[in-house]
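Notes for week 9. Today we move from apo structures to complexes. The key idea is that a small molecule is not decoration. When we ask for a structure prediction with zinc ion present, the ligand SMILES becomes part of the input, just like the chain. The input block below holds both the sequence and the ligand string. Read it once before you look at the output, and try to guess where the molecule might sit.
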Amino acid sequence: MQYPAPISKLIDGFMKLPGIGPKTAGRLAFHVLNMKEDDVLDFAKALVNAKRDLTHCSSCFYITDKDPCLICDDSHRDRSMICVVEDSKDVMAMEKMQEYRGLYHVLHGAISPMDGIGPEDIRMPELIKRLQDDTVQEVIVATNPSIEGEATAMYLSRMIKPTGIRVTRLAHGLPVGGDLEYADEVTLSRAVEGRREL
Ligand SMILES: [Zn+2]
């Protein structure tokens, strides 16, 4: 069946989102048609503003609307620790736990030789540069427990250990192949507690 063009366009838009198939996209599109015009406008504005106003922190590369980000700018944070994650969503997962008080570094990816992604293709050089400052004493590698996440952890260990900075990896117990963002707070908190030397 052929929908009027504006609906087809809306359905196509929803289908670009992860986990949304044609059926769900259709349902969402028709739901939007039944929403109040003000609510639709607010929603559309939120989409555009999020994209326009958010950038990455020039120090840790976490998503932010001001530079440096709130975490890097917080004087109560422990600057001797950097937790290395693959994605901004992982920072949100760690922050939800409310136990970790150090800083972060978001790599925006992981090393994957199979896909031709090397250290230079992610925010690795920037991390190595941050470590040249004497304040950092421990790097907690919290990349995902996947092949790419492990390869990244190995690389970090090789690069950082000779500098004398402690390198630790989150303890097992996180679902293998699963993302950090899906770990519940208790599991994540235990994984940080039980982190091991790399
Ligand atoms: Zn930052």
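Strands lie at 55-56, 63-64, 78-85, 102-106, 138-141, 166-169, 196-197.
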